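> forwarded from #structure-qc
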């Protein structure tokens, strides 16, 4: 059984300033007209509050958070602070935050748990680097990462994003059958851990998703949405991806 509403999440990374709010406004306007698809944009933290006020039709999110609630953590932002600024979602465990000296699995787990407790939706990322792929070890690698990062309690506000690191920003994507197999293995892991409630967790694909390949990626069995980097920066390149997700609804 595929989870219901598709979700398209844009990750702006360290891109965007006040002038980019116009793109968020355009995205939100079209997403409202389209309906039926959950759309989220994660701009830099500096834009969260203004974007959330400007675009209530979509979920504005953060790209990372701290695992604590407050305290002496210079430069960090807690989930409750992000929620207070208007964020409804946070990405945790993105490969750009996991490596080289960043978050370990248990840090990602702690961030996810704190963010869920703060009422945020969470997109938890996993994915293998190229050398692991070259050895054909991507499934055990990703499943171990998943088991190490998942919150102890099932929560339907949690989504997982499978993002092969070698596919991020490279224009490369795994063959559809490999994405399908990975998503099926991840789903089996969620069911093992959370019982049948694990069906309620959406599994997104991410890595060079764009307007040209979105329909094909979303047609893969077990792909419940997309996490989009570069193609999410402009409404013109992001909205066709949202439309592709809308088209899957009428199938
Ligand atoms: P990309 O990035 O779409 O530019 O490959 C995806 C991501 O890093 O989340």
């Amino acid at each position: 059984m595929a989870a219901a509403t598709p979700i398209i999440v844009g990750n702006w990374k360290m891109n965007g300033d006040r002038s980019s709010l116009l793109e968020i406004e355009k995205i939100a306007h079209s997403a409202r007209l389209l309906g039926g698809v959950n759309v989220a944009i994660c701009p830099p933290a500096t834009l969260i509050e203004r974007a959330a006020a400007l675009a209530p039709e979509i979920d504005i999110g953060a790209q990372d958070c701290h695992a604590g609630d407050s305290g002496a953590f210079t430069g960090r932002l807690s989930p409750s602070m992000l929620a207070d600024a208007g964020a409804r979602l946070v990405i945790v465990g993105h490969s750009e935050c996991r490596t080289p000296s960043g978050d370990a699995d248990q840090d990602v787990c702690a961030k996810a748990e704190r963010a869920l407790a703060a009422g945020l939706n969470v997109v938890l990322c996993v994915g293998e680097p190229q050398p692991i792929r070259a050895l054909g070890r991507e499934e055990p690698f990703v499943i171990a990462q998943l088991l190490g990062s998942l919150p102890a309690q099932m929560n339907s506000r949690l989504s997982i994003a499978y993002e092969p690191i070698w596919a991020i920003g490279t224009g490369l994507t795994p063959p559809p059958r490999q994405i399908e197999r990975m998503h099926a293995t991840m789903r089996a892991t969620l069911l093992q851990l959370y019982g049948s409630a694990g069906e309620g967790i959406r599994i997104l694909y991410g890595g060079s998703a764009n307007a040209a390949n979105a329909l094909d990626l979303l047609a893969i069995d077990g792909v419940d949405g997309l996490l989009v980097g570069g193609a999410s920066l402009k409404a013109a390149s992001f909205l066709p991806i949202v439309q592709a997700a809308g088209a899957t609804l009428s199938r």
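QC bot note: Residues 176-194 form the longest helix (19 residues). The longest strand covers residues 121-126.
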